[in-house]
Amino acid sequence: RSGSRRCIQEEHRSLVRKKHVLSRLHDALVWQALPVVQLLAPDERVCMHLIGTLLGKILVRLVVELKSEQYLLCILDESQKELCKATTMRSSLPTFTLLGKLADAIPGFADILVVEHSNLVDHLLMGLTYPNEAIKAAVCYLYGKLYSSPVGTERLSAHFEERLCGLFLNTLGRAQTKELQINCLGLLKELLKSDHFVSILMNNSKPEEESENADFLEGENPLPLVLKKLLLTRDEMLQAASSHCLAATLVHSPSRYAPAFIHADVPEFLFECLSCNSEILIWSVYCCLLLLTEERLFFSKCHTVYGIESLVRSLHDVLPLNNVELHKQGLLLFTEILKRQPVEIKLFTNRGVCIEAIDLLMETVNCPVLEVVVEAVRAVSAFLRKDHLSSPPVPYEELQKLLEAVLKRCADLSPPQSSKRHAVSQNEGDSSLLWYLLCVCRLAVEFQSDPMAQENAFTAPNSESKDTLNNFSKFLLRICDSLCIPMVMNYLERAVSPSVMEVFISTLNTLFTVVPNMRNKFSKKLGMGPSSLYLSALLHSNPALNQACSSFLCSLCLSLYSATEKERTSSQEEQEMSELLQKGLPQLNYTIAESLLLLAETPEPFSLDQSLCSHQHCFILLLYFACTHGDRFVPEAELFLAIRNFLLSAQDHGDCPPAYILRAALYLLAVCQDKGKTLDLRSLCTIRRILDGFPDLSLVYVHCPLLLKFFLHYPELMGRFGHQVLQLWFSWGDCKQTEIEEAGFGVSDQLNSVNPLLPILKSNSSILLILLDLVCSSSVEVAWKVLMTLRTFLETNEDILVCDLLRSRFLQILQQLLVESTNRNLPVLLSLLFLVQLRSKGVRELDSTDFKLLHQVSNLCGKCRPMDTDLLQPSLNFLYWSLHQTTPCSQQRAVAVLLSNVALLQILQKVLEHTWCRSPHSEPVYLSSEDALLCSGWLLVASLLLYQHRYNTEVHQTLSLDVTEVLNAVIFRKKKPILLLVSILQFLRAVLQQNFSSSLLVVVGENTAEGATRPQPPSLQDAALHPLAVQQVFSLVVSLQNLLVHKDFVLSQAVVACLETLVEYLYVKNQDVALHVASQPWHRFLLFTLLNRGRKSFLQPEVLRLMTLFLRYQRSNIISQKEISQILQEAAEANLAELPEATSRALHLFLCQVRGQ
After folding, report:
1. Distance in angstroms (rounded) separating the CA atoms of residues 924 and 172
2. 1070 with 1018: CB under 8 angstroms?
3. SS3 letters for 690-756?
4. Which of 530, 524, 745 is closest to 629 using CA atoms?
5. Smallest Cα–Cα separation from 249: which of 210, 195, 184?
6. Interaxial angle between packed helices 611-627 and 571-584, expressed in degrees from 0 to 180 and rounded to the nearest 10
7. Residue (of 717, 727, 780, 735) closest to 757 by Cα position
8. How far from 855 is each of 893, 895, 898, CA to CA, in Å?
9. pLDDT in tens, 937-956
10. Who has the most CB within 10 Å: 276, 596, 935, 997?
11. In angstroms, rounded to a whole number, what is the distance separating the alpha carbons of residues 864 and 904?
């Protein structure tokens, strides 16, 4: 027997013990019931545990294992008997518990109970009325299982409506224990699955208008108040269950049931629940509030104003959690509140909350999950409303940061062109981005009409805030141009989406008015965009897209017209163009190829239908504005032919296009001229006849180099319209240059040329005659521009021989300008005169025109003041060059003309005296206008001295100069420019050549100056050198030696020539002094310095001329026979044909001197 016990399996031992315990418990209850009851009754917890163990772990398990319906019926029968014979309701608790556990464990038990033993339901109602929450909890649990079954729901529908509903709500409303509360909510959750039960619970039998009234809450325990009571508890589980039930109610019909909850102030307590840490509760609250947003009462009762801060902080708190769905749900709720909030009720009454909302949106935009980013961008779009942000001060800086964050995020998430896996998400992302941009642009436009938003009210006095609407709008325009538009255009070029395209074009249309004073710049930038893309949108079958594109193109064209035609903007013309575009663009449903063919069509004779002309004119305007900004979306050769055909067709039909259409057509012809064929005579005659029909060519003129070239290219057009076109070209001024400087978005390269007329002049020099006519017949401003163009042309084209063509007209122009004593074009004309002289090759006889010019210019100089450098400098240059670039016969007559002009010599006297009155410049490397005038004056006087002496010309006015001042100007240079020193040296050389005895020049020495003290008797050497002194001679020689060290060819030649003339003068006056000067040991050191500064060759012009000078005066201590031999050897080895002219001439003089020795 003990062996058999050991054989019993361990798993059966527990069952044997339980059976034994049950047997002994049964015996105790039969024979000694009172002690057992007294033992268990005091501790209800122990009693309930015992009953639950007996029912749940033994009986229920047994029935489940048996799997037989007859045993279930048996239990139900027994339960029915127990409930009927129970003396108190408390004794029914085990039965209710057993039935609940069976319904939970066995799927079909609830159906059997409802069908076979429906009378048990009456006992359940009695249990709900008994004042014991444990019994009520058991009953509610069982009810929940019964109503979870479809059969039970159907069978017990009337039971609930007639008997259970009120009793249940009362039980739920007064429940105190958590068990009862949870079981009641479980039952409620099952009931809320049925729309019928929801209607009953919400008392939907009342009229709908009463449901929005607070009287609805007068019932004993209506469901909204019961759920609100549960939300007030601190138990997050009950709060979550309550919010679940609330959402389950609203989901059936928010419009029907939401008002009751709103009147009960449930939203207020929902917002309070957002401060919890339970993700489940927060999710449930988000769902409830999202459903409540569908009811306008939710906003009009200001629940959103109360709860927006809680929502923003809740979203801040849940973002660190790894729960994407929670993030999306919260952002969706935030978006709906932002979108549906009435304009008249301000959502953000506290600026701090608004800033927190912006920070939240920035944080969500930077989320690594794309789905969250898309929701965040939608929330940002809804946030960008004037009524959300209009409380001063408007946080423009924060908005700018938010905009940058969104755009940067969208740019980072944009896939490459080859990626097709994310096509759908990219489409959605681009659509969200564009909608966001549209909201931002509309926001900026709305703020422009609000004085409070123009500049923030809290800016300190006398200070400028950066946090302004203007700065924000400029930033918006700049970021859209640099980032948003290229990004979306890149996407649209790969796949055109009508929805994306519609929002994109609407956004572009709105951007026109974001910054009004930058509208023209932005229009030019858009004008350079792909017009083919705009046209493809215009041709799209989507009506909304077609309308948006038509409106956009109309605004763009009108804005471009206003920007490019500011010189002649006509309100009537602009109105006509606006009407044409508004009417014609929506009907322009042709491809580009079809539109080109359309231009050549001719309307039917006597037809009143103007649609063809309207379509032609619209298409030409689109082509015009596109081409003016560099968008050549039509092949130029085809366009050239189409425009030509359009003009021929219009002429054949007898129509004359409006001025703005013909202006566009001529421009398109000019732009495409190089790619198209040359116009035939018929086409040129047609254009000429059409243009003759306009009273003023300016009506069809476009300030464009290509159009200018077009008119000047064809002799038929240049002969008829060349003068008018050039007049318009120069009259237009530099207005386009101003636009170029203003245009931050770029312009066509054809307007960037400094002077595009120059290459046209080079190819057709006969245009110069028209330009000279313009100088005579035009205003001062136009004449000045023409003269400046001619001067630039002559300066840059040395090979153009136009002197004879121009010289004959200059006299007439000069005479006309001299009549206007204040004419500012005189300096330019005088510069042209000198440039024409420079371009003349060789020496020629002066004719009558030349002498008249010489006379006019010299008289003009006599009327000037020394400070009139702009007139005197080119005039003196002209006079100087007239003396040198002619034959001796004409030269003699020219000198006589000049020396007879007393006023000219007087002004020259004043100019030369200004040399030692001028203040030295800090840097002598540049030549100022005053220094240039001094150079011209000294050179002209030197030439007059030379030629007066040569031709013994009569002198009517002498020049008076202090020789000491002249010498000091060279000796004490004081940073004089090199050219001025060269000019003074030329004058000094001319004076030395004439031994200071010219009838034109009166030399005033130090001892002869007016007011000088009584001089001491001069030495014999000084007397011989008069008006020079020995000390002055030595100082001059030293200064000339120092000047030779400078690495300047012109200065070196002038210094050597002056040194040669000085020694010759000294040799005539006093041979001892001359030989002393020539034998200075410093000369040999000077030669070595010149040889070592660059090329170590003796074949340098200044070296050869110095050697020749020293040989002439037999100074063997300066140059030796060895050095002479070395020079001869270098000359023998050199290629004489390749030597510079100055070197060849100096070598020739040196060899002659050597041979003479």
Report:
1. 105
2. no
3. HHHCCCCHHHCCCCCHHHHHHHHHCHHHHHHHHHHHHHHHHHCCCHHHHHHHHCCCCCCHHHCCCCC
4. 524
5. 195
6. 110
7. 727
8. 11, 11, 8
9. 999 999 999 999 999 999 99
10. 935
11. 9
- DSSP symbols for 1091-1121: HHSS---S--HHHHHHHHHHHHTT-TTTS-H
The sign one gets for the Cα dihedral 796, 798, 802, 807 is positive
- Could you say which DSSP state residue 87 is in? S
Q: Are 502 and 548 in contact (CB under 8 A)?
A: yes
| Beta-bridge partners for 960 | 1002
Six-digit token string for 1042: 């120092």
HSE, side-chain direction, 13 A CA sphere, residue 1139: 20
CA gap 389, 412 in Å, rounded:
28
Burial class (CB in 10 A: 0-12, 13-18, 19+), 221: middle
Residues 109, 68: contact at Cβ < 8 Å? Answer: no
What backbone torsions phi and psi does residue 677 show, to the nearest 5 degrees? -80, 155
Task: Please tell me the predicted confidence (pLDDT) of residue 205.
Answer: 34
Bridge partners of residue 836, in order along the sequence: none
pLDDT at residue 742 is higher than 50: no
Burial of residue 1015 (CB within 10 Å: 0-12, 13-18, 19+) is: exposed
Specify the DSSP element, H or E, that contains 962. strand 959-962
For residue 1032, the number of C-alpha atoms closer than 13 Å in the C-beta half-sphere is: 20
Give the chain's length. Answer: 1157
**Residues 1154, 1157: Cα–Cα separation, whole Å:** 5
Give dist(CA 1001, CA 712) in Å, integer.
55
Query: Are residues 1099 and 1135 in contact, defined by beta-carbon separation less than 8 angstroms?
Result: no
Q: Which sequence spans correspond to the domains of the chain?
A: 348-412+430-456+465-514, 520-721, 958-1009+1019-1075, 1079-1157
The 3-state DSSP class for residue 126 equals: helix
Sign of CA dihedral 501, 506, 509, 515: negative
Q: What is the pLDDT of residues 1024-1073, one digit of tens each?
A: 888 888 999 999 999 988 888 887 889 989 999 999 999 999 999 998 88
Reference 670, options 719, 711, 714; nearest CA is 711
Cβ atoms of 212 and 224 within 8 Å: the answer is no
Burial 766-787 (b: 16+ CB within 10 A, else e): ebbebbbbbbeebeeebbbbbb
> Beta partners for 844?
886
**pTM recorded for the entire structure:** 0.62
Residues 6+ apart with CB under 8 A from 367: 319, 327, 373, 376
Q: Are 228 and 239 in contact (CB under 8 A)?
A: no
Q: What DSSP letter does each residue of 391-418 carry, written as one string?
A: SSSP-HHHHHHHHHHHHHHHHHHPPPTT
Helix (H) or strand (E) holding 1002: strand 1001-1004
Listing DSSP states for 637-691 in one string gives HHHHHHHHHHHHHHHHHT----HHHHHHHHHHHHHTTTTSPPP-HHHHHHHHHHH
3-state secondary structure 1069-1082: HCHHHHHHHHCCCH
- Residue 540: both structure tokens together: 């799209």
Tokens matching residue 671: 């732009």
Beta bridge partners of 1002: 960
Token duo for residue 548 = 């948006």
Distance CA 1131, CA 167 (A): 136
Task: State the DSSP H helix or E strand holding residue 155, giving kind and residue range, or none if neither.
Answer: helix 150-155
Which residue type is seen at 578? S
**Bond preceding residue 1027 cis, omega within 30 of 0:** yes
Residues 754-795: tens digit of each pLDDT = 578 888 888 787 788 888 888 878 887 888 888 888 888 877
